[in-house]
Design a protein that fits this description.
Layout: E1 2-3, H1 8-18, E2 25-26, H2 30-41
C-alpha cells in the first residue's frame, strides 16, 4: 500500500493498527512546502537554491 495522503502520520498509524502485517509505504510531502516558504522568506527564487537536511 502507498499512503500519499494528508495527514500522513494519522493515516499511517491507523493503517498500521488495522493491517499490522501489511507492507505500507507512507510518504509526506510537507517538507517540500516548508522549503518553498523558507526560500520565499529569505528572498530566494526557488527552494532548490537551498541545501536542506532532514533527520528523524
Amino acid at each position: 500500500m502507498l499512503n500519499y495522503s494528508n495527514p500522513a502520520a494519522i493515516v499511517a498509524e491507523a493503517t498500521r493498527r488495522l493491517r499490522p502485517n501489511a507492507k505500507i509505504l507512507n510518504i509526506c510531502d510537507m517538507p517540500i512546502g516548508i522549503e518553498g516558504r523558507m526560500a520565499q522568506i529569505v528572498g530566494l527564487k526557488d527552494r532548490k537554491q537551498m541545501r536542506v537536511r532532514y533527520y528523524g
